[in-house]
């Protein structure tokens, strides 16, 4: 027997009477139209998205990218992994879909041509009536030409105003007037369980609509941003398309999926629209995104560390390294500090800190709240330009002269460049000597060594400083592996490396 849901017009409460169950519109996630119907006692089922799609669909666009042929390259589409290709062969009868409805049979290659060839397909949406378009940075990455097609089949050649790989946001501009556009909502106001839809071009099937619910907010996937998780079906080609709530507002940009096969497996992720808007405003203004940095290396605060340091909960960002001359160094931040708040905003996970710092205006006067030796203290701090700091660091490395060259040459046998530990670092780590890894290349990188590791021993010889490390490395036998005792965070382990031929 088919179950029906009724809504009581008076109480709108959650009570059961016989075979009938009453729910409030808020519980059901009803639109105003559905709520009005519910108040009259009309039977209410799942939401109907037809009116919503009619409203927002015209502002969602198909994005095709083209690439000019290069030496040794052939046209006719690109081959992905085997599972995805098998799906495409089954779905499209043995041919790969191409823009414009054309197909290239398997195994057939087009002759080289001077004309741009198809590179990829994605989605996007129009931000304003004068032609600003938002999509993913990875959709247009490496493209020589970008074509935007509307639902009414009008096609525009788009200008790429800028893209930010860290957030995977790009802004395009097409020349048009009175274009349909979408209203932007707020990703801060979304609720887990609310209905959402995605519109895009999966596998180049334009204007495909899928629906689902918000599965989680602030999902930390290890990327620069915490993403919105939903169970809306998203596949290759959906990238850059909007995630839309029941009010017709964009709350996210579909960007990633969690999959073992290459296809949709029930979990998709979207970039929060609030962050995307901040990025897009910078891109429209200057063509790039300026992102701040403090100059610290951080790690998660474990439950054991929190308890041992007297913290009530395992929150914050544990400072494992402070770059010399960085804003954090100038502010007095030390290795072993735990950053609890950034300008008043609590740091729940260590990944929260770079996101907050990155979105902070440069040279702004801020404060950070630290936990140090059982006490809480506040320090004033400013942030520096991330790109500018990288350039300065590179220039500084080149300007060290003969001493730097000698140090690099001495460490080449292991592929390591190191520096002395400061007294504070030694105290924090509880060691009397050791050197810190600045760069790991070749054999060292292959063995898994990373910047920030601390080397305590080489072949059972304790390392005191850089000078001694260089002397020990210079005497290593290239035919025998060297065993290093490596400290990373709170753990130490032995790693075997075979020295390169000198």
From TrEMBL:
**Subcellular location(s) per record:** Periplasm
Q: Per the similarity annotation, which family is this? A: Belongs to the peptidase S1C family.
Where the record annotates domain PDZ, the positions are 298-348, 403-490
Gene3D superfamilies associated with the record: 2.30.42.10, 2.30.42.60, 2.40.10.120
Domain of life per record: Bacteria
Instruction: List the taxonomic lineage.
Output: Bacteria, Pseudomonadati, Pseudomonadota, Betaproteobacteria, Burkholderiales
Question: Is Zinc included in the keywords of this UniProt record?
Answer: no
Q: Provide the primary localization.
A: periplasm
Whether Ribosomal protein counts among this entry's keywords is: no
Q: Where is this region: Disordered?
A: 95-118
Instruction: Read off the InterPro entries from this record.
Output: PDZ, PDZ_6, PDZ_sf, Pept_S1C_Do, Peptidase_S1_PA, Peptidase_S1C
Which reaction is catalysed here? Acts on substrates that are at least partially unfolded. The cleavage site P1 residue is normally between a pair of hydrophobic residues, such as Val-|-Val
Task: State the name under which the record lists this protein.
Answer: Probable periplasmic serine endoprotease DegP-like
UniProt keywords, alphabetically: Hydrolase, Periplasm, Protease, Repeat, Serine protease, Signal, Stress response
Report the EC number(s), separated by commas if there are several.
Answer: 3.4.21.107
């Amino acid at each position: 027997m088919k179950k029906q849901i009724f809504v009581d017009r008076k109480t709108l409460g959650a009570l059961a009477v016989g075979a009938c169950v009453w729910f409030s519109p808020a519980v059901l996630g009803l639109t105003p139209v559905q709520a009005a119907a519910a108040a009259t006692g009309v039977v209410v089922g799942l939401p109907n998205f037809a009116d919503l799609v009619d409203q927002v669909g015209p502002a969602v666009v198909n994005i095709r990218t083209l690439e000019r042929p290069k030496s040794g390259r052939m046209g006719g589409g690109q081959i992905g992994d085997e599972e995805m290709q098998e799906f495409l062969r089954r779905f499209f009868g043995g041919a790969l879909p191409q823009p414009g409805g054309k197909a290239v049979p398997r195994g057939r290659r087009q002759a080289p041509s001077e004309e741009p060839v198809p590179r990829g397909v994605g989605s996007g949406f129009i931000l304003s009536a004068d032609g600003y378009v938002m999509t993913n940075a990875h959709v247009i990455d490496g493209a020589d030409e970008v074509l935007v097609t509307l639902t009414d089949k009008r096609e525009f050649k788009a200008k790429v105003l800028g893209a930010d790989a860290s957030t995977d946001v790009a802004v395009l501009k097409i020349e048009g007037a009175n274009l349909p556009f979408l209203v932007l909502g707020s990703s801060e106001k979304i609720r887990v369980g609310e209905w959402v839809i995605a519109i895009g071009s999966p596998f180049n099937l334009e204007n495909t609509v899928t629906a689902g619910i918000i599965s989680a907010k602030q999902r930390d996937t290890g990327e620069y941003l915490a993403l919105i998780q939903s169970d809306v079906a998203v596949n290759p080609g959906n990238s850059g398309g909007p995630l839309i709530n029941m009010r017709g507002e964009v709350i996210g940009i579909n960007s990633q999926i969690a999959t073992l096969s290459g296809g949709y497996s029930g979990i998709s992720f979207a970039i929060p629209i609030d962050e995307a808007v901040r990025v897009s405003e910078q891109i429209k203004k200057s063509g790039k995104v300026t992102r701040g940095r403090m100059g610290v290396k951080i790690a998660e605060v474990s439950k054991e560390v929190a308890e041992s340091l007297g913290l009530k909960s395992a929150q914050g960002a544990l400072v494992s390294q402070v770059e010399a001359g960085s804003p954090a160094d100038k502010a007095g931040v030390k290795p072993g500090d735990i950053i609890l708040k950034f300008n008043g905003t609590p740091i729940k996970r260590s990944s929260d800190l770079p996101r907050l710092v990155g979105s902070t205006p440069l040279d702004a006067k801020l404060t950070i709240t630290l936990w140090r030796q059982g006490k809480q203290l506040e320090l004033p701090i400013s942030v520096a330009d991330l790109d500018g700091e990288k350039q300065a660091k590179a220039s500084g490395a080149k300007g060290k002269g003969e001493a730097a060259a000698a140090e690099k040459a001495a460490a080449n046998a292991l592929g390591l460049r190191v520096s002395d530990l400061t007294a504070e670092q030694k105290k924090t780590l509880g060691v009397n000597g050791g050197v810190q890894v600045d760069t790991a290349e070749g054999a060292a990188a292959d063995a898994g060594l990373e910047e920030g590791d601390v080397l305590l021993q080489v072949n059972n010889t304790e390392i005191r400083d850089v000078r001694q490390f260089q002397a020990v490395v210079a005497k290593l036998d290239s035919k025998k592996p060297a065993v290093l005792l490596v400290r990373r965070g709170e753990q130490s382990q032995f790693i075997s490396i075979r020295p390169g031929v000198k």
